[in-house]
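Figure 2 data, in text form.
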Amino acid sequence: MSLLEMKEMSRRKFIQSFSAAVCVAATAPLFSGSAQAATAPLSAVEIADLLFSREEEKMARDVYITLYNTWRHSTFSNISRSEQQHMDTMLKKLNLYNIPDPAQAAVGAFTNQDLQKMYIDLVATGSKSLIDAFKVGCTIEEVDIIDLQKAIDHATHKDLDNSYLNLMEGSKSHLRAFVSALNSQGVTYSPQYLSVDLYNAIIDG
């Protein structure tokens, strides 16, 4: 099973296991100071996407932290900090809609066991060589772009749509950084999940 297939299966599991438990909480009115801010409830799919995206961004961050500790290349430390910002963006949305945060504090620990396995597998691959580590980065960012597009397609709330769009721009930038790092090693990267046309448009962007 490919990484993309595993993530799609994991997303479906989130819809089944988490959305029913948090739908009631997500419909609760929110307060800002003394004024009530009525927030339209999220759909089950929107909830699942938020939960999944929070841990997906954590997986990316944790892989990059771990690979930086292995290879001491600044690309990983720089992008791990950006992934932390992505995590923070998703946490703000979870808090806004009163949805419990699934993310665990420890690096390499995940509530979603499919993401747990992906983390282990990706770190193992990226630990083989620096080139393999850069390729792992490319893989993560390609799949993130696809997942974020799905979340955008599902979103009916403009604030979610805008957050996912911002995260996607970050993932595109990360992909360009990893491709550039591979180029510096004399390696030409070919997309594994994105179409060639979309990949070229991102790299040329």
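Caption note: The beta strands are 30-32, 35-37.
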